[in-house]
Amino acid sequence: MAEKTELKEYTMQEVEKHNTEKDCWLIIGNDNTGGPKVYDVTKYLDDHPGGAEVILDVSGQDADEFFEDIGHSDDAREELKKHLVGTLKLDAEEIARRKKAADEAAKSSGGGMGGVVVIAGVILAMAFYFKMKNEESS
Question: Which SUPFAM superfamilies does this chain map to (predicted)?
């Protein structure tokens, strides 16, 4: 049975230094996917189907939301595993930073649900109105 090796922990400050075409790291992962992991994707840049530029735009950063929003395939996720170099160190400062970012994201997208409820209400009211009108004319 192969011995499981311990992954090195990197701070956000360490990852931020790897932000060039010759040295490109990303953080991808969250609480739902086993936590934030650090990937060295330097050698993959030229092979990325979307082009190197999209990765370089988020190099040295937490790219999890970007990665998930694109809707990457299972093959892409398997390819990503080949570039794993460690995990993100979640000290108190990093946990606070991530919580703040999540709170800000929730605030900026929070208004969208209210609009959906209003639209659904209008549609229901219109459906009720037309149903009543049809019953009256029958």
Answer: Cytochrome b5-like heme/steroid binding domain
pLDDT at 118: 62
**Average pLDDT over all residues of the chain:** 84
117: its two tokens: 């409820």
- Please compute Rg for the chain using Cα positions: 23
pTM for this entry: 0.71
Residue in 15, 45, 46, 43 with CA at minimum distance from that of residue 29: 15
CATH class for the region spanning 8-136: alpha beta
Q: Where are the domains of the chain?
A: 8-136
Q: What is the pLDDT of residue 6?
A: 82
Order the strands of the 37-40 sheet from edge to edge. Answer: 8-10, 84-88, 37-40, 23-28, 19-20
